[in-house]
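Continuing from the previous page...

OK, I double-checked the sequence for Glycoside hydrolase family 2 TIM barrel-domain containing protein against my notes and this is the correct one:
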Amino acid sequence: MVKKLASLLCGVCFLLLASCAASPEKVREKIDFNDGWRFLLGDEPQAEEVGFADTAWRALDLPHDWAIEGDFSQDNPSGTGGGALPGGIGWYRKTFVPDKADADKKFRIVFDGVYMNSEVFLNGVSLGHRPYGYITFSYDLTPHLKWGEKNVLAVRVDNSEQPNSRWYSGCGIYRNVWLVKTGAVHVAEWGTYATVSEVSDAQADLDIQTRVANESAMPAQVKVHSSLLDAEGLIVASGETDCFVEAGKETEVSQQLKVGNPERWDIDTPYLYTLLTEVVQEGKQVDRYETPVGIRSFSFDAEKGFILNGRPMKINGVCMHHDLGCLGAAVNVRAMERQLEILKEMGCNGIRCSHNPPAPELLDLCDRMGFIVMDEAFDMWRKKKTSHDYARYFDEWYERDLRDFILRDRNHPSIFIWSIGNEVLEQWSDAKADTLSLEEANLILNFGHSADMLAKEGEMSVNSLLAKRLAEFVKVLDPTRPITTGCNEPNPANHLFKSGAMDIIGYNYHNANIPDVPKNFPNKPFIITESNSALATRGYYRMPSDKVTVCPDRWDKPYYDPTFACSAYDNCHVPWGNTHEETIKLIRDNAFISGQYVWTGFDYIGEPTPYGWPARSSYFGIVDLAGFPKDAYYLYQAEWSDKPVLHLFPHWNWTPGQDIDMWCYYNNADEVELFVNGKSQGVKAKTPDCLHAAWRVKFEPGSVKVVARKEGKVVGEKEIRTAGTPVQIRLTPDRSNLYADGRDLSFVTVEILDKDGNLCPNADNLVRFQVEGNAFIAGVDNGSPISMERFKDNKRKAFYGKCLVVLQNTGDAGGARLKAVSDGLRDAEVSITAE
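Thanks. Re-ran it with the corrected sequence; updated structure tokens here:
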């Protein structure tokens, strides 16, 4: 109570002082610059010019992904690896009029991501070119602005040279765009850096570095005031430092705040503070900048694994690509939040941003929801994986891109590991690289020291030197987090390991080699950076379930099966991978393993291993592309969480007399018993070697039921009935109340049911959708990896009884009504509201 009262009084005093010092106008504005653009798919000479006629172009709001609007085609140069969707060149233009009253302000345009090879123009002047499609970048608009007049911002995006990615990239300005307005003296871009040097229950030491920029023609004497606000907005610590900044320069200020009785950021209680940075010049507040802060301690130990806030725990993580299913790559916060909610409910506590910098909003969500993030920079270095990928730009751009990546993300408390590469081909020897002299290597890698110094470091290979260079570069910008790479070469002779630069040894797969890690890498922490690559199609089951299918036979061999499906029993995986159960047991039984990031949390567009055309999206996900959990989801929920789990599968619609394998994932029980039409099929229990219960039974129409018992008492029951002919549709929105912001979404699950309300597990009825009111259809999906139906449509076939329609608010408050119709079925309707 005393602490709260003191904080409250301190906060009141601060607000009084701030109100005296602050000017009436906002000293910093971050303006949403997504609305009111025009778009052309195609190239157009002089489209950057102010007088260019764009009235015939399509009007749209950002973020935007033009590829997701296209048709799947075997002829699209992205190939099935890129989702078989179109690329090309596109232009965006936006006209705006800056107020003459802001002529003394500085304006910067920020693009969170443009895929790819973007060039930005203001009033016909090129501001710059950026090849990497996943990086955030910005330009100073101020020198080229016309105050009180029409200004034209134009962006050319070139994603025509394909393939340039091993998965679906999307096309266009697919992340948010911001206009940042500041005074001439302000906190520089990504200009704060807050770290915790010491933390205990009694106190935390918060170290702060602030870069102050002076873009005026005169030197500036300022005060930098830093305040740490708790979740209720009360000041818990503060400090002030005088600072002199030369004209046209930046100055860095170091401060330390003592935080009493700190609240810890943790996966279950992700407590966030806010660091408020104020720059005061001549008694006037000239900038106000906020930074999220999470106070936590962590370490990676060679014997104990991962330790968070003093307690050992496993990282139960998943890898995620950036697409949002039928919404494509276009960023939507609610869509990302939904994915994370589904994963959190499963017991997941970690996200690997594979294999590129994510949208900043994803990291904001991970901060708020409690995920342990591995933030990853590159999928390739100098050696290419596809014909037109980032490798061709790497030598020129890697320092700039890596710098911007670290500076942008380093304040996020959810980030615990930096990954500087994924399965880069530099792991292995290269005859040409091995013949380079150290002088040549020095030139290529742009090291800041001489070849003689490099020689003293042990005659490293060029590939090892590159790994060391990247790691050193990151350490300068953020020495507080460990560095790893996702390696698919477990041999200690791997050049990345030989560099000595990896703080954590990271394996992609290679479970058989993991027990030897402590011997091969003494005193080095270890994590499975990518695991399993188990394959499954939701709703499809291949029996006998105790027979494991490995497909393809070898990574470089084609694979064909007329079903274009993979069994959902956890009995199908790629040759370099494993079943889900295998890796769970391996991690459980080895304390030194910090955890895993499963490949993948959700299915994603592209990379449809093991199949080729017409497959166009992945089979790897624990959750399918539409967001419907596959059966393995409940295995993880049973093993990773304390939530009561009793999941019986598959469905109960088969041929009479057919042998059917029934599986059950469960927890919080000693045993489970199966009944077919009331007749017991036996009692089963999990063992340390088998994490599911299984029965082989004869199918007979009716019902199959599982009963769970603990200490002899029934603690749960699940029953599945044989479904009859499809009769009706059920609509279930994940949210019925939306924000009237033009971006919020409701994901509506569409199910085909019989007359008694049982899901028809093999139904593939075509469902048409009609929307009235303040919503529109943002996308449709069903989770099928081989469907050629468009994602942007008003209809969808059910896939194993289900499909999805995504409703988006129009920006207006009020209601909306969705109606679903299908030939021969009863219609269904559902309402949502927005306010």
